[in-house]
Amino acid sequence: MARTRNSKSSSFISLNPSFFIHLFSLPPFNSLHNYSPRKNSRITQTSPFLSFCFISLLITLTFFAILLITFTTFFQNPLLCTGTSSSSSPLFLASAFAVASSRSGSVQDEQITLSTGAMMPLPAHGVVGNFSEEEEEFWKQPDNQGYMPCLDFSLKYRKASAKISKEKRKFLVVVASGGLNQQRNQIVDAVVIARILEATLVVPVLQVNHIWGDDSEFSDIFDVEHFKKTLKADVRIVASLPSTHFVSKQTINRDLPFHVSPLWLRARFLKQLNQEGLLILKGLDSKLSKNLPPDLQKLKCKVAFHALRFATPIRELGYQIARRMWIEGPYVAIHLRLEKDVWIRTGCLTGLGRQYDSIISRERDSHPEYLTGKLNMTHSQRRLAGMCPLNASEMARFLKGLGAPISARIYVAGGEPFGGTQAMQPLKNEFPNLLTKHTLARNGELTPYLEKSSTLAAIDYIVSLSSDVFINSHGGNMGRALEGHRAYVGHRKYIKPNKRMMLPFFEDSSVSEQEFKRIMKKLHRKSQGQPEPRAKKIDRDVIAYPVPECMCKQ
């Protein structure tokens, strides 16, 4: 975080010496100052004793007052930057949910800071209760190695902010497409591009989602005022384009290459922006380089984990549903990716039989452009290469291999699976406590949002963020977003199935169940949400791997 000169003043109380001089000038303490042996013997015997008692009492009260104010200050700042070690435990970060997430009022009357703006999960459950050794290992959280959020922007960045945050002549308009988490990625990049071009950002336009028919606007999903205020020191953000910049015909730039750098953006658009005062960009998904200067990487984290907070109605409902899972004890959240469009795009078999596979094949043949990856691979080759989502049967065996208790409560995130209840039955047979947002909602809570896929995805995101264990069956934007967010709030357990390595053992009938468990645990021992520096694979997004640019050791 950017630290101001008085940032440490909130961590302790300094008392001016004149305070004590004035204090001892007041009765009854001046009796000690004025005490003389020549005075009346009665006063001589009693005044020092009484004064000593009052002084002792005052010092004690002052000490406890300082402690009270200090602890109050700490608990009001759950996500402090480096230099404040008292908030370094993940449990402390998680407990800040009560402060950071349950505020349902408007942000109009409160100052938005990094310490209060982050969307926090419910606290992780400790491993307490009648668990076997294997079950304890499954629920145990990874070691965060002391990493904490650390958005300390450079002096050069902060100096430039004075001008950039007041820009009123150049405007950037961005149209974000895709599902919720794809749109979130583009909004993050939009803020960074506005900063690079030193332009005012108009609140991004969300393109109507033709696949799911969702016409939600930015303000329907995200807290606009929080978004603007959180980033006011970085980029000026306005709700709409000024009438002075309306033109009858404006070029929409939609053909950006992949991995564009700040230098490329300035060379390509700065002249146009200075001349016309307006730039419209569309199709930003994965176009901005993953390898940006440190300050811009920190800005991406600030947008993703602090500024993009869901709108109050979504946040409240999401946490209500999360609490219904959380109150019963630890739970797992899984993102299965069994929707119809996923099967079409991946070129994989559903595992539901010929009838369902033929439906997918016909639609895939009529829309070959939907197919992703290599076209010359068979279904089996795709699966063994890790290109297919785990189906319900495979997920059930994977969970058992990791040591998940049969009684585990499992939250299933995602859209309606292709094949309906039949698709989920193998998982339910092994783990009967299977729940979704629909089964947890009460009294028509979800009714207003049944046609709003982005809102439903946001609820899934909140419940998954608060889970003790999260398992993603097939990559995707939501999985990457949660991987980074769970790391940022204390490295909550996050398991990525190593499908390429583990699936051959699913086929080998000679492997005993005990040996299968040993193999699954060994394969995933080092991929359970521990701090993993982005630098190991330089093309990784800082939003998925916030160490070390956005997190540092205390």
TrEMBL record:
<dbReference type="GO" id="GO:0016020">
    <property type="term" value="C:membrane"/>
</dbReference>
<dbReference type="InterPro" id="IPR024709">
    <property type="entry name" value="FucosylTrfase_pln"/>
</dbReference>
<keyword id="KW-0325">Glycoprotein</keyword>
<keyword id="KW-0812">Transmembrane</keyword>
<keyword id="KW-1133">Transmembrane helix</keyword>
<keyword id="KW-0808">Transferase</keyword>
<dbReference type="GO" id="GO:0005737">
    <property type="term" value="C:cytoplasm"/>
</dbReference>
<comment type="similarity">
    <text>Belongs to the glycosyltransferase GT106 family.</text>
</comment>
<dbReference type="GO" id="GO:0006004">
    <property type="term" value="P:fucose metabolic process"/>
</dbReference>
<dbReference type="InterPro" id="IPR019378">
    <property type="entry name" value="GDP-Fuc_O-FucTrfase"/>
</dbReference>
<feature type="transmembrane region" description="Helical">
    <location>
        <begin position="49"/>
        <end position="71"/>
    </location>
</feature>
<dbReference type="Pfam" id="PF10250">
    <property type="entry name" value="O-FucT"/>
</dbReference>
<protein>
    <recommendedName>
        <fullName>O-fucosyltransferase family protein</fullName>
    </recommendedName>
</protein>
<keyword id="KW-0119">Carbohydrate metabolism</keyword>
<keyword id="KW-0294">Fucose metabolism</keyword>
<comment type="pathway">
    <text>Glycan metabolism.</text>
</comment>
<dbReference type="GO" id="GO:0016757">
    <property type="term" value="F:glycosyltransferase activity"/>
</dbReference>
<keyword id="KW-0735">Signal-anchor</keyword>
<keyword id="KW-0328">Glycosyltransferase</keyword>
<keyword id="KW-0472">Membrane</keyword>
